[in-house]
Write a structure and sequence with these properties.
Strand order of the largest sheet: 1-3-2
Distance between the termini: 77 Å
Strand content: 15-25%
Number of strands: 8
Shape: elongated
CATH architecture of the largest domain: 2-Layer Sandwich
CATH class of the largest domain: Alpha Beta
Helix content: 40-55%
Radius of gyration: 20 Å
Order of helices and strands: HEHHEEHEHEHEEEHHHH
Largest sheet: 3 strands, antiparallel
Number of helices: 10
Number of domains: 2
CATH topology of the largest domain: Beta Polymerase, domain 2
Length: 209
């Protein structure tokens, strides 16, 4: 009987994964690069890789320099490949408002909620989207998949963020030119009446300043 040929480890590919994610990588990404569970354990013993505490299946290149927002990267990767950082956490990454999230907010397709909840668990607030986020609603910031500023503002408002934080985020985003009032209103049109009113108030406050 012929045995299936083992895929040769591609450490350059694994490093590419990790270098785009602050030095972090998942077991699934390692497998995609041909690095088996045995090899992962071997490199952990050799202190080339580190297991991330309380994040099953998440690793880090031991000698990779520290980067900002490592706790966000950990939570985002732990929540699964479909996760996108969103809501208050997206506002923080975009440096809009001065919100300080106590958990990392991620959005996943509705069918992936169970996986995301089991994966991260501690420190992660999971939101679901009936329709998967489109490419135009996602940007890469500091190596992290994150919702766009306009989507982050609407999501945060809809989820009950403090009105003053929403207003501040709108004012800052308009001043920086990263959103327009038109795109903000267009995205908020299907939100609750409270959210639409809060968005309108934020736009009026920002444009009157």
């Amino acid at each position: 009987m012929r045995h299936a040929r083992m895929k040769r480890p591609d450490y350059d590919r694994l490093f590419e994964f990790a270098s785009q994610q602050g030095g972090y990588f998942t077991a699934a990404q390692a497998h995609a690069a041909g690095v088996s569970g045995y090899l992962l354990r071997y490199h952990v013993r050799r202190k080339r890789y580190q297991r991330v505490p309380a994040r099953r299946g998440l690793y880090r290149l031991r000698l990779y320099p520290s980067v900002p927002n490592e706790h966000v990267i950990e939570a985002w990767l732990a929540a699964g490949p479909e996760a996108v950082v969103s809501h208050d956490s997206a506002l923080a990454l975009h440096e809009l408002s001065d919100v300080l999230p106590t958990k990392v907010h991620v959005t996943v397709p509705r069918g992936h909620r169970g996986l995301a909840t089991r994966a991260g668990k501690k420190g992660i607030q999971v939101h679901t989207a009936t329709t998967p986020l489109g490419a135009k609603e996602i940007v890469i910031r500091q190596g992290i998949k994150v919702t766009t500023p306009v989507r982050a503002i609407v999501d945060a408002a809809q989820a009950g963020a403090a009105p003053e934080q929403v207003t501040m985020a709108i004012r800052q985003a308009l001043q920086r030119g990263v959103i327009t009032a038109r795109t903000l209103r267009a995205l908020a049109v299907r939100s609750s009446r409270r959210t639409r009113a809060l968005i309108e108030q934020g736009i009026r406050t920002a444009t009157a300043a």
